[in-house]
Amino acid sequence: MRRAPLVRTEESGGEQGFWPSYADMMSAVALILFFLMLLSYISNLITGNDLKMTESQLDETRAQVELARAQAELARAQAEAAQADYDAAMSQYVKAQKDLQGLTNDLNQKQADLEMYAIKIAEQTRSIEEQEKLIEDQKAYLAAANNEIVTMRSQMQTIAVLRLSILNMIKESIIDVMGDASKVSIGDNGNIILSEGIFFDLGSSAIKPESVPVLNELIDVFSAFLSNENNAKYVDSIVISGHTDSTGTDEDNRKLSTDRANSVLSYLLAGNGGELTSYSGYFCAAGYGETRPVADNSTLWGQAQNRRIEISMILKDESVLDIVDQYLAITVPDVSGADTPTVATPAPSPSPTPGYARFFGG
């Protein structure tokens, strides 16, 4: 209900009109204070809510800051690890650079070596081609030389067979006459070995009568052989040598062996009516005493073996050397690689040994 305004009137007097206005004013002040308090309360409510919200936001911000700080620490650790990895990678990179430089240098050196090897291979290829040509030349030479060697071998075999044939003829002839093969043999030196007992009594140089058929057979064999010019041209000498055992003095043994050799030779040249007289230039005698034993002189059997007459046929040096010279004169390709073949210079022939050579025994 709306109040009537307070109005100061004359009837009520001046004091009675003032207090109602004051009360109204106080009410208004109280109302204003109430409103102010209400506003303050509301403001406090709003401020409290804002403060709580702010604290919540602050806590959240603190949490975010802590999270950011942790992330920052993690990032710093990661950055440090990354820096360490970078430093290690940089160190490996520097090392790899050095290794690469070393490999590059090695590669350049190997390239230079390959170029050098290529040059050497080219040179060796040319050398191989030259060697192949030389080999072809040498094959041709070997083919020709082989023919020469076959011819030379044939000639040498002819000489060897010739010498062996006459020795076998002598051996077989003596065996036929004596009927005893135990006293004649061909030694390792290619000589005919005749036992002392065939020709002589012990200690004697006189020819025994019963040995005459053997000596006559020797005369016939030598005469038939030397009468053939193809045989005689190879013969330098036919040596009759005497040998004794070690009993007695050296001087006596040398004299006895020489006397026995001369006795055999004398009969050969005079026997059968002088059949070998025209060939006497081929024959000679020698005495060696006890100096060339073929068995142990400490036994009777050995002494008997050492008392012997040997017949050896010595071939001419020239006969053999002519064949060798023919071989040495074969055209030989120059091994130095020159295209023009050279001729091997024959070795100078030595002067014939006085008396006889030693190519085939003696």
Protein model, in words:
With 362 residues, the protein is α+β, with helices and mostly antiparallel strands. It has a domain at 151-343: 60s Ribosomal Protein L30, Chain: A (2-Layer Sandwich). It is built from seven helices and seven strands. The protein has helices at residues 14-178, 196-199, 212-226, 229-232, 250-274, 300-306, 317-328; strands at residues 184-186, 192-195, 235-243, 283-287, 308-315, 331-332, 342-343. The strands form two sheets. It has a five-stranded mixed β-sheet. Strand 3 (235-243), helix 5 and strand 4 form a beta-alpha-beta unit. Helix 3 (212-226) packs across helix 5 (250-274). The model is unreliable at 337-362 (pLDDT under 50).
CATH C-level name of the domain at 151-343: Alpha Beta
**How is the biggest beta sheet arranged?**
5 strands, mixed
Q: What ranges have pLDDT less than 50 throughout 5 or more consecutive residues?
A: 337-362
**CATH architecture annotation name of the domain at 151-343:** 2-Layer Sandwich
Q: For this structure, what is the CATH homologous superfamily of the domain at 151-343?
A: OmpA-like domain
SSE topology string: HEEHHHEHEHEHEE
Rounded Rg: 71 Å
Mean pLDDT: 80
Strand content: 5-15%
Q: Structural class per helix/strand content?
A: alpha+beta
List the total number of helices: 7
- How many individual β-strands? 7
Relative helix content: 55-70%
- Report, as a whole number of angstroms, the end-to-end distance: 188 Å
Shape assignment: rod-shaped
Taking strands numbered 1, 2, ... along the chain, how are they ordered across the largest sheet? 1-2-5-3-4
The third-level CATH topology of the domain at 151-343 is 60s Ribosomal Protein L30, Chain: A
